[in-house]
Amino acid sequence: MLRVLVCVSGGGTNLQAIIDKVEAGAITNTEIVGVISNNKNAFALERAKKHGISAECISPKDYESRDIFNKQFLERVNAYKPDLIVLAGFLVVIPPEMIAEYRNRMINIHPSLIPAFCGTGYYGLKVHEAALKRGVKVVGATVHFVDEGTDTGPIILQKAVEVQNGDTPEILQKRVMEQAEWKIMPEAIDLIANGKVTVEDGRTVICD
């Protein structure tokens, strides 16, 4: 069984999609061992508890320095002994030590087709605002491994979503979640859980 730890800052809609797919058997060989949030009021924590999943808050605000937080955060992560860390809307900079320790074992979901509208400053609604301002006709979502850059790790899966007339950032965000994020994140976890994803020369290879 793949031991999955999910890190999330907000409502946890991607977390819910993962929980639902695990419980339905669409994600196989996988167990969600815990949920960590940097926000004690994150609804994601309630979602986890409703499904009997260990959930806790670890916030940088509760520590004297970012270095102390980073150390404590990594200790708490390691305590779950995860095989895979899933960043599902986690708005905390991941410590370099953690990236190194979990190389190609930590994945993130980004609400655009990388390399479009990604990198520093592109998160949440800001991504969809930028896409609409640029007038693109197709947007989407990307699941990728986490490396030292921002949204620069090896891409695992992408799914396109059409922009429609009259879209607002909020409407587009919801469509990208429903049509892309909630589909490819569970799919990526299932592929990893079944040993079908490898990284070669900075690119992922998905086996049948």
In sequence order, what are the helices and strands, one letter per element?
EHEHEHEHEHEEHEE
Helix tally equals: 6
Q: Which structural class best describes the helix and strand composition? A: alpha/beta
As an assembly, this protein is single chain
Strand content: 15-25%
Overall body shape: globular
Mean pLDDT: 96
Number of strands: 9
Please summarize the sheet with the most strands: 7 strands, mixed
Uncertain runs are none
Name the helicity range. Answer: 25-40%
Strand order of the largest sheet: 3-2-1-4-5-6-7
Radius of gyration, in Å, reads: 16 Å
Give the distance, in angstroms, between the N- and C-terminal Cα atoms. Answer: 19 Å
Overview of the structural elements:
With 208 residues, this protein is of the alpha/beta class. Helix content is 36%, strand content 24%. The protein is built from 6 helices and 9 strands. Helix 4 (96-101) links the parallel strand 4 and strand 5. Helix 1 (13-24) crosses helix 6 (169-193) and helix 5 packs across helix 6. The longest helix has 25 residues, at 169-193.
Summarize the structure.
The chain is of the alpha/beta class.
Task: Supply the key terms.
single chain; 208 residues; alpha/beta; 7-stranded mixed sheet; two-stranded antiparallel ribbon; 36% helix
Write the layout of secondary structure elements.
Elements: E1 2-7, H1 13-24, E2 30-37, H2 43-50, E3 55-57, H3 66-79, E4 84-87, H4 96-101, E5 106-110, H5 125-134, E6 138-145, E7 155-162, H6 169-193, E8 197-200, E9 203-206
Parallel strand pairs: 1-2, 1-4, 2-3, 4-5
Antiparallel strand pairs: 5-6, 6-7, 8-9
Helix pairs in contact: 1-6, 5-6
